[in-house]
Amino acid sequence: MSVLQGRLDQIIEDTNQFIIKTINKSAQIIPGKMQREEHWEYPLIALREAVINAICHRDYQVSGNVQVRIFDSRLQI
């Protein structure tokens, strides 16, 4: 478990980097081309938005933290 502290923009960036390091990424060779296409387990833009929403819309009057939990079958924010 990691606890991130600091400016909100840095917490968002650090959280996204943690998620990217933890989730799976697959690669596929494109037929007829010398290229590979990478696919993340979850869309990165959706993950970033979910993290930002969780931070912005949490109830700051209640003690607690925004938590990101990554399981084999799901990601929970």
TrEMBL record:
<protein>
    <recommendedName>
        <fullName>ATP-dependent DNA helicase RecG C-terminal domain-containing protein</fullName>
    </recommendedName>
</protein>
<dbReference type="InterPro" id="IPR038475">
    <property type="entry name" value="RecG_C_sf"/>
</dbReference>
